[in-house]
Amino acid sequence: MLDVAEGSLYPVLHKLEKEGLIQSRWEVVNGRRRRVYATSPAAVRAVRERLDRWRRLSGAIDSVFVSAREAAGE
Amino acid sequence: MSDDPRERFLNDLKRELRRGPLTRRRAVREITAHLDDAVNELMATGMTETAALAEALRRLGDVGTITSAFHELRPQRGRRWGVRGLRSPAWVAVGAMSLVTALAAELPQTSGARAKTPVPAAVHFSHQARPIKHERHRRRS
Fold first, then answer.
1. Buried b (16+ CB within 10 A) or exposed e, B54-77
2. CA-derived radius of gyration, chain B
3. CA-CA to B66 of 20 to 30 Å: which in A11, A66, B85, B122?
4. Is residue B52 part of a domain?
5. Domains observed in chain A
6. Per-position DSSP letters for B32-51, written without gaps between them
7. Which chain A residue is nearest to residue B67, measuring alpha carbons?
8. Is B57 helix (H, G, I), strand (E, B) or coil?
9. Structure confidence by residue, pLDDT tens digits, B81-119
10. Would you call B33 and A33 a contact, using CB atoms and an 8 Å cutoff?
């Protein structure tokens, strides 16, 4: 559905880490170095806040369109 | 310039990534590890090394896309009132309401409340405003 370049994931990860939402460290897996990312406790709060914000936003948009439909007599 | 697509991609990435040396080194290392892992995984499905590298590079995206994503997500110092401030639900509701109002005005048949609007008020205003402004200008000179 979404065609996102995998490389553009890294700027997002770096930004989330700077904001303290994820933590990362290098690990060696099968002889290869890999950066492993994990969510921080702050991420759980941030996800809740963003979900709440999204619900408020979508509710506000819904209410505008419902009242517009009612005004149009639909 | 290298003929190897992997080396060419990584060299371009190093050159185009305008970040601090530590961030740049880390980003290049991570993306290199990602690329090599993807090539190995694709080769494990039966692809040749050349085909696997081409597919892994395609999935990773071009250097311009990656570097511009790094640039866009760079923290902006001293920019307190940007587009972010306009993302609040209140602003979005105001924007949506304006859009609905504008659409309702453009399509009077969809709204029973607007039966008569022969001439838009803005037209009258602009006709009245122009001569006054012109008059003042002439008096000064």
1. eebbebbbebeebbebbeebeeee
2. 29
3. B85
4. yes
5. 10-71 (1.10.10.10)
6. HHHHHHHHHHHHHTT--HHH
7. A8
8. helix
9. 445 555 556 656 656 666 555 556 555 554 444 444 444
10. yes
Q: Closest partner residue to B60 among A5, A32, A57, by Cβ?
A: A5
Question: What phi and psi, each to the nearest 5 degrees, are found at residue A36?
Answer: -105, 130
Query: Helix B49-60 to helix B21-44 angle, to the nearest 10 degrees?
Result: 130
Q: How many residues does chain A have?
A: 74
Residue range(s) defining the domain that contains residue B36: 5-72
Query: Tens of pLDDT along B5-38?
Result: 999 999 999 999 877 788 889 999 999 999 999 9
> In total, how many domains does chain B have?
1
Asked if B36 lies within 8 A of A60 by C-beta distance, the reply is no
Chain mean position to CA B96: 20
Nearest CA in chain B to A36: B30
Contact A10 B70 (CB under 8 A): yes
| B124 domain-assigned | no
All residues of chain A having their beta carbon less than 8 Å from the beta carbon of residue B24 are: none
Contacts of B23 (CB under 8 A, 6+ apart): A14
